[in-house]
Amino acid sequence: MPIVCPRCGEKGYLVKKRVAGRWYWYVRHEEYRKGQRRSIRQCYLGPVDRYIYVERLNPLRLRGIVDTTRYLDYIESAITFFKVEISHRNLKIDKSTYNRLEKISKLLEETINEIKKQIS
Ligand SMILES: [Zn+2]
């Protein structure tokens, strides 16, 4: 069944490909020519499991864009690691940090209220 490619917005087929021992998601775009279907290009969507090299320095549990719940996990990971940075005093805390956190908090509150309306 075709999907809308999250990268280019065109229709294509979600496929898993094994490259150098690891699995990756792609969207294969096809066209019909003379009654035959042929692949014209593919869009890379990311690894099936996780980004190993990126995660070594930024352990946010990043995943390919096929995973629709990934942003919730990113928010959770980011807050967890942010708190660790604060506790280890690796982060300069000042009024600007406070203001940014307050802005993020308001965004979260707005999002929570929108979701609350949708589920009730
Ligand atoms: Zn695409």
The percent range for helix content is 40-55%
C-alpha-based Rg, rounded: 20 Å
Helical run tally:
3
Following the backbone from N to C, one meets helices and strands in this order, namely EEEEHHH
The number of strands is: 4
End-to-end separation:
32 Å
Our estimate of the beta-strand percent is: 25-35%
Major sheet strand order: 1-2-3-4
Global shape: elongated
Ligand inventory: zinc ion
Taking the sheet with the most strands, its summary is: 4 strands, antiparallel
Could you tell me the mean pLDDT? 90
Q: Residue ranges: pLDDT <50 for 5 or more in a row?
A: none
Which structural class should the secondary elements be placed in?
A: alpha+beta
Structural account:
This protein has 120 residues and is an alpha+beta fold. It has a domain at 1-49. The protein is 41% helix and 29% strand. Strands 1-2-3-4 form a 4-stranded antiparallel β-sheet, with no helix packed on it. Strand 3 and strand 4 (36-47) form a beta hairpin. The mean pLDDT is 90. It binds zinc ion. Zinc ion is lined by residues 5, 7-8, 10, 12, 27, 29, 43.
In short:
The protein is an alpha+beta fold and 120 residues long.
Looking at this protein, list some descriptive labels.
3 helices, 120 residues, alpha+beta, 4 strands, binds zinc ion, 4-stranded antiparallel beta sheet
Secondary structure: elements and pairs:
Blueprint: E1 3-4, E2 11-19, E3 22-33, E4 36-47, H1 52-57, H2 70-87, H3 95-119
Antiparallel strand pairs: 1-2, 2-3, 3-4
The protein binds zinc ion.
